[in-house]
Write a structure and sequence with these properties.
- The protein has 13 helices and 22 strands.
- It is an alpha/beta fold and about 450 residues long.
- The strands form four sheets. The protein has a six-stranded parallel β-sheet, with helices on both faces.
- α5 crosses α8.
- The radius of gyration is 23 Å and the shape is globular.
- The protein starts with a strand and ends in an 8-residue tail after the last helix.
Length: about 450
């Protein structure tokens, strides 16, 4: 594909790195000569210095031949205008824009992004996406990562195997016998910095991060089986009252009215604003790195510290300080791609990576075939892909054990007519089934081929 990316910041660079690595023809636009120099030096892409919404700059980046325009600059307005110019002048087929201001996303103005108004095909709101991920972590405190597929019927859960994990040193093939009707499939294991797709004889080890695909109603049982029976948080302290922290507090007030929430916000003006907008949340004006402020927030009695500032290091330190002062668990917002691999060693129980969330949303529209959803894991080492099986797919009508799937690919779940079905060697995929598959990065192209529409379909 020919792809133009407006914005060479962390998100734009990450998207360009991923897509260029897959062999796509990528151009990146940014006003900053330094950011463009970094892109040119480190990636096999075309770098263009200029304003991402200007027609002449888009033309220089090859917009007239582009299949996809991705606008992820720091300005919502630039992103929206870039998509409008890409549509009106260059007829770019698919336009994706990151939009942060919630005013644009108010349901009252849902027609704003219609084709006859602002022709943006996909609007990505990182604050809402990340906020929802935080909410899922709070509802499943034993999980390091949770992602939903197939209309929330299937959950992919990242679980850390601690020393007291009951299933450590147990061959995976025995789990079905030990826990019948669970419906959980271990699809990936992150061990010593490497992500693998385990075979049935593989045994889990202490400190493994295991990715399990499971029907939604069996998630809590699965967590207990892996040694995590932590209760839902009832006392939450949020470090940072920015857009994400504010969103999380709003949703906790709405969905979990019995949960006691406190926000520590360093800006007095912002603290006053969110204090007026929230109803039950207690707002403290101060630094989350100040032990006196954390004690004032009763951190020793809190279930979870959620650090959501724009500073990764501040988030990590706040989480570590909170646990030192007696907080049971922590969850950190982490943007730096180097930090997640060290999260456990740094004392972080769970984390959310906004860049990974945005990249995952973009990948869905880059992947070929009947792809419904994509989520990137471990900085692009693997993907969980949800796709619809068509009549012409080689996957259809044969037992899974006879499919000879490539190493590095595993079927995690099958949803048929809206309901998850049991997955074993005898299971057959039928046309129109939703299939959730785990694939290492180098095998993603083969998965795409499995779900592409062949000429015989027409």
């Amino acid at each position: 594909m020919r792809i133009v990316i407006c914005g060479a910041g962390q998100v734009g660079f990450g998207i360009a790195e991923r897509l260029a690595g897959e062999g796509h023809d990528v151009s990146v636009i940014d006003l900053s000569p330094q950011l463009i120099a970094n892109v040119r030096d480190q990636l096999d892409v075309r770098g263009v210095i200029g304003h991402g919404a200007h027609p002449s700059v888009l033309a220089s980046a090859g917009a007239e031949n582009a299949d996809l325009l991705i606008a992820v600059t720091q300005s919502d307005e630039v992103n929206m205008v870039a998509c409008q110019v890409g549509h009106s002048i260059f007829q770019v087929p698919t336009k994706i824009a990151r939009v942060r201001a919630q005013s644009y996303l108010n349901p009252v103005y849902s027609d704003l992004f219609a084709r006859d108004n602002l022709p943006i095909d996909v609007v990505i709101s990182p604050e809402i996406e990340v906020g929802e991920m935080v909410m899922r972590r709070l509802s499943l405190p034993g999980a390091v990562e949770t992602v939903r597929f197939a209309d929330d019927k299937i959950i992919v859960v990242g679980i850390l195997c601690l020393e007291d994990c009951p299933v450590v040193d147990t061959p995976l093939k025995q789990l079905t016998d030990l826990f019948p009707n669970l419906g959980a499939v271990v699809t990936g294991v992150f061990r010593h910095g490497t992500l693998i797709v385990p075979h049935s004889d593989e045994m889990l080890r202490v400190d493994d991060l295991v990715y399990v695909v499971v029907p939604r109603e069996q998630v809590r049982r699965t967590l207990v089986i892996f040694g995590h029976d932590e209760p839902k948080a009832s006392r939450v302290v949020i470090a940072g009252g920015g857009n994400i922290g504010f969103y999380v507090a709003q949703q906790l007030e709405k969905r979990e009215p019995s949960t006691k929430v406190k926000i520590v916000e360093s800006s007095r003006q912002r603290a006053l604003y969110i204090a007026d907008a929230l109803h039950k949340t207690v707002i403290l004006n101060g630094s989350a790195l100040d032990q006196a402020v954390l004690r004032e927030a009763d951190i020793e009695d809190a279930d979870t510290m959620v650090a959501l500032t724009n500073d990764d290091q501040a988030n990590i330190i706040a989480c570590v300080m909170a646990k030192t002062l007696g907080c049971a668990r922590n969850l950190s917002l982490i943007n730096n791609v180097s930090y997640p691999a060290l999260a456990n060693a740094l004392g972080i129980d769970a984390y959310v990576n906004p860049r990974a969330v945005t990249i995952s949303r973009v990948l869905r529209h880059v992947r070929r075939g009947r792809i419904e959803s994509v989520h990137s894991l471990q900085n692009g080492s693997a993907e969980v892909i949800e796709a619809e099986a068509l009549e012409t797919s080689l996957l259809v009508g044969r037992p899974l054990r006879s499919l000879e799937l490539p190493d590095g690919v595993r079927v995690g779940a099958i949803v048929r007519r809206g309901k998850p079905i049991e997955v074993n060697g005898d299971t057959q995929i039928l046309a129109r089934d939703r299939v959730v598959m785990f694939a290492l990065a180098e095998k993603v192209h083969q998965v795409e081929q499995m779900f592409r529409v062949s000429l015989e379909f027409f």
